[in-house]
Structure formats: C-alpha cells, structure tokens
Amino acid sequence: MRTEQQHSPQAAQRADNRRLRLRFTDADLEHQFLLSYRAVARPWVRMSLAVALTTTLGFAVIDHWILVGPRLARPDIVRFGLQLPLVLIMMVLTTPRLYLRWYQPAIQTAAPLFGIGTVLMAVEATPAQTALVAARLLLVAFFYFFMLGLTFRAALRCNLLLIAAYSAAALLGAIAAPVAIYSLWVLLCANFIGGAGCYALEYANRVAFLERQRLADVATHDGLTGLLNRAALEEQAQSLWRQAHTDRLPVSVMLIDIDHFKAYNDRYGHQAGDRCLQQVAAAIRAAVTRRPLDVVARYGGEEIAAILIGGDHAEAASAAERARQAVADLGIAHSASSTRPYVTVSIGVTTVLAGGDYSHEAAVHRADLALYASKERGRDGWSFHEPAVGGSASVGGELRKAAS
Hints:
Blueprint: H1 11-18, H2 27-66, H3 73-92, H4 96-124, H5 127-134, H6 136-146, H7 152-171, H8 177-220, H9 230-247, E1 251-258, H10 261-268, H11 270-288, E2 295-300, E3 303-309, H12 313-330, E4 345-352, H13 360-376, E5 381-387, E6 393-394
Parallel strand pairs: 4-5
Antiparallel strand pairs: 1-3, 1-4, 2-3, 5-6
C-alpha cells in the first residue's frame, strides 16, 4: 500500500542522472526503482532462461555432431551437471512467489558459475576446437548484460569474473597463448559494446522511472504545499481504514484551519498568502507525522487534514497541540487577525477506538464539528469530538482549548 511520500524525486535525483550515476542517493527511491525494474523484467527474464535452456541443449547436439573428438566427456559433465541445472533452478525462481525475494541473489551466483563452466569447456577443447568453444563466451557476456534482468553493475561484475576465470586458465597454460590473447581481446571488446548498451538502457529506465514518479507526484500532491491533495487522500483513506480495521488499530482524524486566512491574503497579498500556507503546511506535517502510515493532506483552501493510523486519544491530543504550537512558533506576522498578532490555527480532532465505527466519512464529519467548536471558543486551539454513548454524536464531553 502506498502512502504519502515525504521525499518525492526532485532536482537532486535528476542531477544524479545528469552526472550519469546509476544509483539514486535516496535509498528509498533506489529500492522503489529496483522493485519496479525487476517486476517489469520478470516475463522477459523467464523467456530468456528458456532461450538459454534451448541454446545449451543445442550446443550439446552441435558439439557431438561437429566437434568430434575424444575430449567431449568432461564438457558434457559441465553442461549437464552444472549449466543445465543452474538454468532450471533459475527458471523455478522466476515464478511469482519466489522471484522478488530469491531470483536476484541467486542469479548473481549462478551466472558466474555458468560462465566458469563455459571456460572449463574451452579448456577441454582441442587446439582446433578452442576458438569455436571460446566464442560462446561472447554469448554469455551479452546474456549477462541484456537477458537476465541484471543491473549494469551486477552484469559488469559477472563479466569481470568471467574474464578473470578465462585469464586464469590462460596463465595456467590450459589455453594456447595466441588463442587466449585473441579470445580475451574479443571478450573485452564485447564487454565494452555490451556494457555501453546495458548502461544506456538502465540510464533510460531510470530517467523514465523518475518521470513516472514526477507525474504521479503531480497527480497526487498539491503543487503549492507538497502535501497530498484531497483526491489522493480520499483514495488512500479507503486502504488506510481497511488496514486499521484488519489490525484493530485506533484511528484519529484532524482537520486544521488557518485562522483569518482571507484577512491575511487581503492584508499581505496572495503571494505572501502562498508562502504562509507553505510554511504552515511544512510545520504541521513535521509536527503531526510520527508513524509510517500517518498522512497529511491539503483538504481545500487553507484547510489541512491528517489521518493518524494507530493514533489513540492521547496521541491525537498530543499531535494537535504540537501542530498548534508549531504554527505559533513560526511567528508569521498577522496584523489583520483578531485572535493573535501572528498566524494561528484552529484544530478539530476525533478518534475512532479499536473496533469502533471505521468510517472515514463519519470521522471527518466529527472532526469538522470539533473544528467548528474550536473556532467558536476563540480559535488558536484544538477541540476533541467523540461519539456519545448510544450512537449519537455530541460536542462536549471533552472539549479543550489550548492555553493562550
């Protein structure tokens, strides 16, 4: 379930991409990208592994048909004892239940082992066969870069291990020096070409991901304050309230209104009003949010709403007072206010206890009644509303106004 993102991808992440860095500095954003990238890649990875299975079996047939000689037994052991089992295991790990958790760590071990197996087959080839068998290393290299759903860094790491294994075999004299030098040069060229393509592809994927995030941000967040907009709050509220019902958690709802905001705009101008709203929204968000599922949204005009999942009566009262005090501490001058010489807020709060009536509409209505009561009692304060016993609602039982 997606809740309000307090740090949406902005200029810093776009700057990271302009510097061609294939990693977001925001760990949460990097995690989101990797999950998205891997989920999209899964069907293609599964198809690629089927191709790998087919080509491995195809080379087995071709080897026995064309590469006739006494040195095919050990390559068959590598092929049927190592490579084919690895491909089959990876195919199992691409099933939806296992893929996101197990595929990536497994493929980053299996891929180098598969490549080492290809090196072993090159070692077992006769001098006449070595160049032909070593050519398969090129296929392995390109498979790493484009077919297995690996990031550029992971694919490059696998290819460096492949080059290291082939170099070690050459240094030990298992491969004739001229063939080894030629094959290593071709393999390095393949890595330059494949690596550049893989890098460019991941770079494009990251830019596209940021653009999707930006568009989603525009659609769900208020452009002025950066808070969720009302439509997004109403959409998320359904999931939040369902989760609270399932987990039997209390839920508190707050409605916060800037006192005499029209008078502020008339006195200082709408640009100053926008700056005031931005400062107040930031202060309230910082003061109110304490748990991962807490959300704050611009509800309309100068009104802000908050839903505190897991917030009981005492926590809601504490959050309301923190919000009131945070706005007062901004010290934004408001000479047109009849309440204080600075900007203040009035707050209405209600709490649905665990197992109560998990209705978002009803809770917002009760918070609105409490907000009205807070204004009636002089503003710059918060009032609490709770349903009366017997199902009717009342504003009274616990009405509080913050001390002046």
